[in-house]
Amino acid sequence: MRTYNSTLILRRLLSPKKLSYGYRRLTSLFGNPLVDDSDNLVLVEGKGRARTAILNRPASLNALNTSTIARLQKLYKNWEENPDIGFVVLKGGGRAFSAGGDIVSLYNLIKQGNLEDCKKFFWTIYSFIYFLGTYLKPHVALLNGITMGGGAGISIPGTFRVATDKTIFATPETLIGFHPDAGASFYLSHLPGYLGEYLALTGEKLNGADMVSCGLATHFSLLSKLPLVEEQLGNLITDDPSVVETSLANHGDTVHPDQASVIHRIKKVDKCFSHDTVEEIIDSLENEAAKTNDAWCLSTLKKLKEAAPLSLKVSLRSIREGRFQTLDQCLVREYRMSLQGVSGQITGDFCEGVRAKLVDKDFKPKWDPPSLEHVSQDMVDRYFTPLSAFEPELHLPTKQREAFT
């Protein structure tokens, strides 16, 4: 079985010709998503041997759409093949890194009956995440501000992730009737203990210090010092990840999670979230709350009761499967799950969640099924069933990207 180092994924030398098949396959299925005229969605800065890509939709907190990801894919592919470029930096313009996928746009596409463009979005972003996870050059993501969902997906598989005192991380998909995707079932499942289950089911936020402590981020910098970090990166003439890491370490800050952080509750997280079912997790939290009147348990129970019941069960299984799968396997499975999630054939929870949270903003979603006891095993199983012969599976160029298995 292939394995991945969650901090530094093995880089392998491959010729450009070997990389072409996956992109030809993508083009044959959906047209050419890499041809995009919206260059202003991702700005580019270059200094020395570094190139910096800047997500440029600040008004929408750099929410990711197909055009944005296609632009990133095109840039990254060109930079990987350019021997004059040593490493790549990714950051967000404005006050966010990226709030995740542009789910309101997906909602509108579904309402218009345009599922093909929804599929194109998931295909494009998951393909890029895999490309980043096997990128041949050092990659630095500067995770200042909101970093959620797909925003985490297009950064965490890279080599280095720099969090700041303004970073807010979360995978809040269960709160909109979806599941943590964009590679989340891989990286969450590899966090210490059962922290991944906790984050996936509750959508709880972590700050920059928390991210460093649990391994989601590799370095930390105060926002006030981030310009210095960027300046020093720009001065590097290297393609050596150890040199990049030394620079980040020399100009970064040491930080520890505060006493209220969930990081200090890992034992309780493990005790409650290690159970096999969502019902057992809730029972465990209720027992703990009854014994100690623990505010954390009560708060966690509240979050679980706000989430879509079907999403909770689907997400728990996804994290558990991710613990024994490689990044590419997780992405292929998540693609199946996401298509089921937006198709409306099992439930309309995704549209209902987006409506309630972001469109009408009444914050009163009517989940279907309405409770855990109404969620059948068949409903959950259908999310994980291979796609039909008429629906192509996500194809990733694993043989081309991974020379050694």
TrEMBL record:
InterPro entries: ClpP/crotonase-like_dom_sf, ECH_dom, HIBYL-CoA-H
Record carries keyword DNA repair: no
Short name of any one Pfam family annotated for the protein: ECH_2
Pathway annotation from the record: Amino-acid degradation; L-valine degradation
Annotated Enoyl-CoA hydratase/isomerase domain residues: 51-384
Superkingdom in the source lineage: Eukaryota
UniProt key word Hydrolase: yes
Keywords: Hydrolase
EC numbers, comma separated: 3.1.2.4
Top EC class of this enzyme: hydrolase
Record's catalysed reaction(s): 3-hydroxy-2-methylpropanoyl-CoA + H2O = 3-hydroxy-2-methylpropanoate + CoA + H(+)
Single annotated GO MF: 3-hydroxyisobutyryl-CoA hydrolase activity
GO BP terms: L-valine catabolic process
PANTHER family reported for this sequence: 3-HYDROXYISOBUTYRYL-COA HYDROLASE-LIKE PROTEIN 1, MITOCHONDRIAL, 3-HYDROXYISOBUTYRYL-COA HYDROLASE-RELATED
Family: Belongs to the enoyl-CoA hydratase/isomerase family.
Its job: Hydrolyzes 3-hydroxyisobutyryl-CoA (HIBYL-CoA), a saline catabolite. Has high activity toward isobutyryl-CoA. Could be an isobutyryl-CoA dehydrogenase that functions in valine catabolism.
Record protein name field: 3-hydroxyisobutyryl-CoA hydrolase
Organism: Handroanthus impetiginosus
